[in-house]
Write a structure and sequence with these properties.
Elements: H1 2-27, H2 29-39, H3 42-62, H4 75-91, H5 98-102, H6 113-145, H7 154-177, H8 182-187, H9 189-208, H10 210-237, H11 244-260, H12 270-281, H13 286-321
Helix pairs in contact: 3-4, 3-6, 3-10, 3-13, 4-13, 6-7, 6-9, 6-10, 6-11, 10-11, 11-12, 12-13
Length: about 325
């Protein structure tokens, strides 16, 4: 199994790299470099811009705790946990899962470990639902406005994919929170016993705080929406200004690409190819989309590196304390 996973990762990375190089050659390395260089000091503004997204996501995570637990958790610990977890998710071929194991350990709170883990599970579910709803609302808008050149069946397949994600998240959370049938307890006694504290926390949260779950989902949606502001800013500094509506449409579709390409480590090739296709579908210059993807990719890599650094610092703290 491990060997097959390694081969799959190598194949995905090879395909992504090949796609990136093909597009770079098609648009012309010199022309892309000129666009990238023309962006200039705009990068100094785009780079710290991401902190707002992390703060929105940290607020979504904060709402995944019960009202009694929330005062015991530092907001900035949540921000650091988001950055660290996202960095691990971004750089590892884990389907955006590995980083979730990092987040509980980033919290310096005195809360029980089970409460921290439960909050991560709830926040991950709220984030997945938030992204799916964000994309579905975007698809409805794009179809109504007829602003994107969808080919036959594309929008339908995209909507079906997002609906599957919504159903899958609801089913997984319901299954995890449900009281285990006797046959599962007999078949997987140790797993049921180990996960019972988390499952009990989850049942209590879902039963008593549905409003906080809705609020968490909303803040994750706001985090995804903030990406449209970044797109607008990048295009502005590239000398290719677009309207807020167009920027939001680009971000709708970017999230759709990310949702289907979640297994690609560091979004190799998918970031640039996705943006090029999105810009072309919106009637914009595909090479500008490629450049926007390249700039966003550079920003994501730097933040992922920062996340790994925060994780390393926290691990050193835990080692000293332990």
């Amino acid at each position: 199994m491990r060997g097959a996973r390694r081969w799959f990762t190598c194949l995905v990375l090879a395909l992504g790299t090949t796609t990136f190089l093909y597009l770079l050659w098609s648009f012309g390395p010199r022309r892309v470099w000129e666009h990238f260089r023309g962006f200039g000091w705009g990068f100094a503004l785009v780079l710290p811009f991401q902190i707002v997204d992390h703060m929105c996501n940290a607020t979504g995570w904060r709402l995944a705790f019960s009202p009694a637990e929330t005062p015991k958790v530092s907001f900035w610990d949540l921000v650091r946990g988001r950055i660290a977890g996202d960095g691990v998710n971004y750089l590892t071929p884990s389907g955006s899962i590995a980083g979730e194991f990092v987040r509980p350990g980033m919290l310096r709170s005195s809360l029980p470990h089970d409460a921290k883990v439960t909050s991560v599970v709830i926040a991950k579910a709220a984030q997945a639902v938030g992204q799916a709803l964000f994309v579905l609302l975007g698809l409805i808008y794009l179809l109504n406005a007829r602003s994107y050149a969808f080919k036959t069946g594309q929008a339908g397949w995209a909507a079906a994919g997002m609906s599957v994600i919504l159903f899958g998240v609801a089913f997984a959370i319901g299954l995890l929170a449900a009281r285990s049938p006797a046959f599962l307890k007999r078949r997987f006694p140790s797993a049921i016993e180990r996960t019972e504290p988390v499952r009990r926390h989850l049942r209590d949260y879902l039963g008593h705080h549905p409003g906080r779950l809705a609020g968490s989902t909303l803040f994750f949606m706001l985090g995804y929406s903030w990406g449209a502001v970044e797109i607008w800013l990048i295009c502005f500094f590239l000398g290719f200004p677009i309207g807020p509506e167009t920027a939001l449409c680009i971000e709708f579709l970017s999230n759709l690409v990310d949702a289907f390409a979640f297994m690609v480590p560091a979004k190799i090739g998918t970031q640039e190819a996705g943006k090029a296709a999105i810009f072309k579908g919106l009637g914009l210059a595909a090479e500008m989309g490629f450049t926007v993807g390249l700039i966003r990719h550079a920003r994501e890599m730097l933040w992922a590196g920062a996340g790994l650094s925060l994780y390393a610092v926290r691990q050193r703290e835990l080692k000293i304390l332990g």
